[in-house]
Amino acid sequence: MTSRRIDLDDMRIHYLEWGDAGAPPLVLLHGIARCAHAFDHLAPHFADRYRVLSIDLRGHGDSGRDAGGNYLVEDYVRDVEGLIDRLGLKDVVLWGTSTGGRVAQMIAGRRPELVRAVIVEDVGPERPKEISNRRANRMGLEENGWASREELLAKVRTDNPRWLESVARNLVEHAAREREDGRVVWKRDPAILKGFVPTELWDTVKKIRAPIVYILGGASTIVPQHTQDELKAALPQVEIVTMPGLGHYPSDEDPAGFLEIVDEFLARQNQKH
User: Fold this and answer.
1) At residue 273, does pLDDT exceed 80?
2) Where are the beta strands (DSSP E) in the chain?
């Protein structure tokens, strides 16, 4: 794994890279309030076949903060498209979790010539008001941080009991920092909440031409049945796979099962090329 930075207009973007620079690109996009290291347990699996790039979205991890608090999905999209263009990436496979999945859907619809395939983890084209409000309440509770990383780890483990402990520890190690007063806080700009608003991306999603799979947690309510039905009607190439009993980040709860689904999906796309 190599840590890299790139300057895009007025935004510095940090990303992690695995694999051969000449291999087909696989771009990984994390969820809100997480960071590029959220894929540390998954990215090496693809390093022998792909040039894997996991990006810290603006305001997250070691990427820059936006002074104007511009953190809409469209702002993240602009940065990721800028990185893809600057690096000259072609035939990109996009994999996005949660908010990163919205970014992946947007890029695939806006720039179909760039995208070879899309993997979307437990998120659809819609972010209803109740989800926005839930995130606002959660970030308010987290604002004062925790006394130590172990205390934060205990909180993460309580909130996500199905996660592997190694995944939780890795997230706390890389996605948190010590504040000047000694409290441990998430490594993110509090202003990201300004962009976590009700969102509807159907007009763009309907323009997706690449093969796309939505992998959902069966215990999650983020992508309800009516949205799944609408996706099937809008995108004839769509695949929807539900992992029974899993939550909003199924790749953290059952990495092996998730990777098997992704491998089978990508193998089918490679056969078509």
Assistant:
1) no
2) 2-8, 11-18, 25-29, 51-55, 92-97, 115-121, 126-127, 176-178, 184-186, 199-200, 212-217, 238-243
